[in-house]
């Protein structure tokens, strides 16, 4: 029995789809799973139990990536095909069941939209998959000790990024003994994080240093995650870390973190248009207290 999941090219969207994938996997424990996704999202599925194939495909001119993907999966007979990208590809495959998840058809949280499209009510929360090796590395990077504050000061575009000086001021106010700073690979991520690391000497620098599964294992060792709307934010919530997402020029109504203890705080103004620099440190500090069940600062 083979099941095909066609999911996102982005880390955050891939994490959002993980709860449905896990629910289907658990319902068919003997199934051989194939996941097709973009390179940035591939690490989300590296430890997926039952994974037979991980197909990485990237956008090509004239939608050539769909033809390329079709040529790699058309010879198989699929028990289920779940297409989170809303394409027509599934209709060109042998499949006993097809689920096409289209965006924007239902109001509300994206993870709930996906769950409803797949027939799950209530919708399953996102999950992470890690291996013993990931957890061992995480323990080396974040050894036992005082609680750790995790910060995610990057995002895939500038309109989502809270100013570095605000992260520094908040971290000092929260007064954790240990701080871990997360970010993805590449010079852009390193440049975005550099001011935060400079302002928080002694912080654990995990920027570009870990795989997605290792990042999830590291996050699971933290007491609190605060970060911009990003793949890391969704990964933290899925790892069951108390997670506070920071929103400005993105839609919290759809993309707020989904987890057992997750919340968001948004910059004042119209959703999707508010400037992140207008999100005050005081407002975030109060949101942290509310999330953690502590007295809200005056």
TrEMBL record:
Keywords: Glycosyltransferase, Transferase. One of its GO terms (cellular component) is cytosol. The keyword Lipid biosynthesis does not apply. InterPro entries: Glyco_trans_9, LPS_LOS_Heptosyltrfase. It comes from the Bacteria. Pfam families: Glyco_transf_9. CDD domains: GT9_LPS_heptosyltransferase. This is ADP-heptose:LPS heptosyltransferase.
């Amino acid at each position: 029995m083979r099941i095909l999941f066609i999911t996102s090219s982005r880390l955050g969207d891939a994490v959002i789809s993980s709860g449905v994938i896990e629910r289907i996997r658990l319902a068919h424990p003997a199934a051989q799973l194939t996941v097709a996704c973009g390179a940035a999202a591939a690490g989300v599925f590296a430890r997926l139990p039952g994974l037979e194939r991980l197909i990485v495909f990237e956008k090509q001119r004239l939608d050539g990536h769909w033809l390329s993907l079709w040529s790699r999966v058309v010879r198989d007979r699929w028990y289920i095909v779940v297409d989170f990208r809303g394409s027509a590809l599934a209709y060109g495959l042998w499949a006993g069941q097809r689920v096409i998840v289209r965006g924007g058809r239902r109001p509300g949280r994206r993870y709930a939209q996906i769950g409803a499209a797949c027939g799950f009510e209530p919708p399953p929360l996102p999950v992470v998959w890690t291996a013993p090796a990931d957890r061992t590395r995480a323990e080396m990077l974040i050894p036992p000790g005082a609680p750790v504050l995790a910060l995610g000061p990057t995002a895939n575009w500038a309109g989502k990024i809270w100013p570095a000086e605000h992260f520094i001021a908040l971290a000092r106010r929260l007064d954790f003994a240990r701080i871990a700073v997360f970010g993805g690979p590449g010079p852009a991520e390193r440049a975005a994080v550099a001011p935060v690391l400079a302002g928080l000497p002694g912080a654990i620098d995990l920027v570009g240093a870990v795989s997605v599964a290792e990042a999830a294992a590291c996050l699971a060792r933290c007491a609190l995650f605060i970060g911009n709307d990003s793949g890391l934010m969704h990964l933290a919530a899925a790892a069951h870390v108390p997670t506070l997402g920071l929103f400005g020029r993105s839609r919290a109504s759809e993309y707020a973190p989904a987890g057992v203890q997750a919340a968001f705080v948004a910059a004042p103004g119209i959703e999707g248009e508010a400037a992140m620099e207008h999100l005050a440190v005081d407002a975030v500090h109060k949101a942290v207290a509310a999330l953690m069940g502590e007295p809200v600062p005056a």
